[in-house]
């Protein structure tokens, strides 16, 4: 604790009173009054020297006051207090955790809060899977702006069209950020998530549901209106299951079919909310609008029971993004590459038709 933090407390007390997280200090005709009920402390008629003495006896409360009365955006302040559970734990409990290096996870980002000798917070941001990796073994960044380009691609260098997809690359660290830079970095990794999360907590999140979002589509995306004619919402359940599951997006879906009609599929468990169908969902819906306009037909295929189950397993493996995890030698897995190639060799004709059945029989 340094003198400036005590002066800040005294100034606030003179200007109407200082109160934060269990500490209360005010100033009247008899001098200062210093109160921490949880510690059994309540003294009044204090001089500045007395205030300084008590401040040094309870430095964690004083530095905590200095940190959380600093001018910063409301959403950023709420996020940083969330990171150290400031609204859940007492100051002593919280400081004990911070001295050991407390951390929480925002999406796939591990947000660790570090405490220096003056009670100031420093923040270490990295992929949650890199929690135990020595900082020196990771690529170090100090400018929040670097996060914007860092998260454009996944570990395999593939472009990430959905920033909230669970495909954040590994191997990087922002090891020594102040609060403002930490919030800014998170916003580059997961745009607008802090603001929307804060609005939700304040009861002010403005949700745009599926119908209203689709109704305002125009141009090449206007075709989705022909799919969404108010004739039920089963197709939207399919869209949400395909795109908004926790395995595909880390946001918690809050939008429904419309204000009165909830979707049947779960919205997920993400920390931060999704307030409207995103551009990826709209783009996919445009494609499905065209595909779903086709008339169903009945085809006849010849498959063994095991081959039918294999086709189903292959679809599951692709849908779950599991194909890369299937070992080449694991031919017990129905979606194994060699088993799939065998099925193709056996059941596809020279034109690529399953079981020799052409797609267009007319």
Automatic annotation (TrEMBL):
Question: Which domain of life does the protein's organism represent?
Answer: Archaea
* UniProt xrefs under InterPro entries: DR2241_Fer4, DR2241_middle, DUF7348
Pfam families in the record: DR2241 (PF18069), DUF7348 (PF24039), Fer4_23 (PF18009)
Q: Where is the DR2241 stabilising domain?
A: 91-200
Q: Which intervals hold domain DUF7348?
A: 3-70
Location of the DR2241 4Fe-4S iron-sulfur cluster binding domain:
202-287
Its protein name is: DR2241 family protein
Q: Which organism is it from?
A: Halosegnis marinus
